Amino acid sequence: MTFKRVLIAVVLLALLGAGAAYGWRAMQGNRLPAGFASGNGRIEANEIDVATKYAARVLTIPVEEGDLVEAGAVIATLDTRDLEAQLRSAEAQLRQSRRTREESVALVAQRASEADFAAKEMERALILFGKGHVAEQRVDQARNSRRTADAALDAAKSHLASADEAITAAAGDVDRLADLVADGVLKAPRKSRVLYRLSEPGEVLAAGGKAATLLDLSNVYMTFFLPTDTAGNLALGAEARILLDAVPGTAIPAAITFVAPRAQFTPKQVETKSERDRMMFRVKARVPEALVTRYIERVKTGLTGMAYVKLDDKAVWPDWLESTLTRGESPSPPPISPSPPRGEGRGEGEAQHDFAENKPLPTPQSTPRTPRNTPAGERS
């Protein structure tokens, strides 16, 4: 009995030692070496509010939350019938102004001809008066006729200038109304994902009312916080790695693009060095746009994880922070499974897609059931 107890104790100690060694190695394997820093954060992207320039009724919204839309895709159309009527009226006014200008041009030509004739008449009257063939009254009449013709020519030119200004004003009204009519079709400014659908057909939106909110997937980044001593040693453009909680085995490459100029949260009194060390600065690590484009169907905002940054250029990334993505390889993405938005009511759902894992998704398998009340001899 004593020998068996000793043997059991030795086996238990060996198992405990092996477990402790395995745990220690696991902890050492994921330990962050010198020259690096880390922080908790989440994936974010810039939001774009697609809004109206003027009050109008919504006719159609052909997109749904979660849709991936290209640049120029129609997000919503507004009722612009009143503006279209005003545009037709402005176009008619523009045509009228152009006809008025044509008449003014003809009138200027007529008045110019009359002024030229009056000038020649005055010259002939002066010559005849010098020879004594006409009275001085004839010269005065010719001089008055010339002045009248010159005044009429100036008036005609003034009317022509007014016609030109009327055309400019009418053309401006046409351009303004045409732009307003065109603004009745709300389009995506760039390739993005519909985050919120904020209105429905039939609703009247005020000026600046939002029809939808888009996510600009060309700028995907993780926001996290670092203490003073770490943020002060961090260079813009420094290499970074992102490990998402949803994909813990895949390191995503990134680069530091922003360090806040001011601490985001600090103690009430900052007087000692220990208190200054507790100041935290917001940092952004941006995922390369080419990588986002490659996996754009699997990009999801709101995912939490860890961001790791390199403080020393000579430091080498540990193996657990390397992956096919960081090495620039092109793994085959797994099948895409749609992620429905969190439907908490209109405008509160969140369109989501995640980065692809480097392993296929598990396929659910059905478990055969044994029918009830079936004799044992009939079961196959």
UniProtKB/TrEMBL annotation:
- Biased composition annotated in UniProt, kind: Basic and acidic residues: 343-357
Gene3D superfamilies noted in UniProt = 2.40.30.170, 2.40.50.100, Helix hairpin bin
Pro residues composition bias: which ranges? 331-341
Q: Which SUPFAM superfamilies match?
A: HlyD-like secretion proteins
Give start-end positions of Polar residues composition bias: 364-373
GO cellular component annotations, sorted alphabetically?
Answer: plasma membrane
Ranges for region Disordered: 324-380
Q: What is this protein called?
A: Hemolysin secretion protein D
